Structures are given as structure tokens and as C-alpha cells.
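ok posting inputs for the FE2/S2 (inorganic) cluster job
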Amino acid sequence: MISTKGDYGVRALIDLAVHAGEGPVQRADIASRRHISESYLDHLLAQLRRDGFIRSTRGPGGGHELAKPAADLCLLHVLESLEGSLAPIGCVHEDSADDEHDPLCGQQWVWRELYDGMRERLAEISVAELVEREQAREQAIAPSYSI
Amino acid sequence: MISTKGDYGVRALIDLAVHAGEGPVQRADIASRRHISESYLDHLLAQLRRDGFIRSTRGPGGGHELAKPAADLCLLHVLESLEGSLAPIGCVHEDSADDEHDPLCGQQWVWRELYDGMRERLAEISVAELVEREQAREQAIAPSYSI
DNA sequence: ACAATGCTGACCAAGTTGGTCGAGAATAAC
DNA sequence: GTTATTCTCGACCAACTTGGTCAGCATTGT
Ligand code: FES
Ligand code: FES
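and the output
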């Protein structure tokens, strides 16, 4: 359901969010920090740029930056950009919202219900929240600096 | 996430549940009623039999039957039998339940949360409920018999 | 001019999906 | 015990997806 496209793409956005305000971040840095193949990451960044999540600049000192505050990037839009539809099964899409009951299959309502719930939850989670949790976890693991 | 294996397999179980108590149901009947390739259905029934959801008998008059009441067949077990793990992403499995925080990726908690929720919901839905809903829908569509 | 950096599309190996096919095994009916 | 019926099992297949790699081009700072 979620391939490395979505996973790596979100990792990249987290990285950009962490280093926001420090000027453009280069793909090589993202790739090495987040353990992603550099040339594969290219394609993911291209997709994120096409959909307006990041801004890129070429030439020396170039790189990538978030186009919006991390708090305004919700996981739902990001993942749908990277993965296409997140539908758990082919016959369910987000625009088949209402009571359009397909008479073919008696289990469609299950997937529609689960899909709607998932999309709702993903829309609530922002990249900023992911960064917060990551940093909170890092502090919990290594509090040795405060000795 | 859910391929035709799971979809067709559940359709077949619904069919068996509808015709429960009428003796063994032949795969050709299931296939034609539920629009499934007959020889493909073979493999799905084999898997369902291996995991004890159905019972099969050979020879003339043979066929397949539910091994348990439809109310005791929950969608979670059936789908995990047919599809393998339903995890939305590779690094999340059902037995990584507790606080085993993988330090690699800052979004694992999202998938863990969604996955747990999904499994909980699927465990609540039985094949019997699918049959009920299907029949309720059929009556809603064609109430013309009561004229 | 040149070096650094991003952009793009072609290409590729491995795995998954959604089947098909054919040989065989069990069993009921005759 | 022969035959027709039905399930069983494994091999095989074409198309597609995944997770990349690579070469070449475009842009820009120095
Ligand atoms: S065809 Fe969509 S749920 Fe079965
Ligand atoms: S590696 Fe599992 S969520 Fe990123």
C-alpha cells in the first residue's frame, strides 16, 4: 500500500522541515542523512516539486526547501502525491464518496469505511508533528547531555 | 493492499454462507455467481481450506462448505489468510505490538496506529454481517415482490 | 569558463498479480 | 470396476509494479 516512494518522500520532507530556514538543502545531504538512494530521491523530489510542496534551486549553493510551513503540509496530500491513490482496493476511490452503491460486491462498504477513516486521520497529521515526535524521541533516547 | 485474492475469496465465502445448509456448493457455481475465473478460484479455495475456513468434498455432488457458522468467520482472519499481512508498509507487522520504536523512521507510529485500528475493525466484521447487508441491499433495490 | 547542482527520461532486474493449463486423485452412480 | 464428476496441485505465463541506476542536459554562482 505504501511503497518506499511514500516513505522516502516523507522522510525527505521531515529532513527539509528540520533544516528549514538554513537555506537550500542538497539532495546528497538528505539522501545520506535519511538513508535513501540519491538518484532515486531525485524522482521523489521532482514529484514533490511538481505538486508544490517544495521549491528547488539549481547551481552552486542550490538545493531544496519547503514551499510552505511544515505545519501546513498534511500527510494525506503528500502521500497521495507520491503514491497516487491510497485506496486499499481498486474499486474504491475518494471521489466515489456518497451512496453510489456498486451492486457487484458485498464488501465495498467495508473498504469505503476504512478508507474514509484513514484519509481523515492522515489529513490531521502534519510534517511538523512528525518532526516534533522525532525530536521528542531523540531527547528521550539520549538525555545524557543534561548530566 | 487488497488484491483480487482477498476480494474474490471473501466473495466466495459470502456465497457459501448464503447457500449454507444446502449441501456442498460447487466451484463452478460460485465462480459464475460471483464473476470469478473458475481456475483462479481454485487456488483461493485451496488456501481457505488449508486454514480451516471451509471443508471440501470430491466426486459427483461434491463441493465446498463453510467449516464454521458464518458469524464466526471474521474478515481479519480470512483476509490475512488470503493476502498474507495486511500491513500498509513493510516495516510494520502485527507482532511488533509494543513500544519497540525503530529509530530509523519518524513516521512508523502513524502506520502502526492506522494498522492497529484497521485490524481491530476488521476483526469485528463477520461474513454473516456481509451477507445481512447484501440481502438488506437487495431488498431495498427490488421491493417489487411485495406489491 | 567552469564547477556545482538540479532535471529528465531511458533503461533494467526482480518480484507480484491474475490468471491458464494439464495431470492426477477421490468418490458417487451405474 | 468403469465412468463421469468434482476437487487438488504444481508448472507455467504475460503484464505490470517496484526500486532503483545512468547518461546527458539545464541552470546558476564564482
Ligand atoms: S469489487 Fe470492490 S470490494 Fe469487491
Ligand atoms: S521505514 Fe517504516 S515508516 Fe518509514
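notes: The first strand of chain B starts at residue 54 and ends at 57. Residues 24, 26-28, 42-43, 45-46, 49, 56-64 of chain B lie near DNA strand D (CB under 10 Å from a C1').
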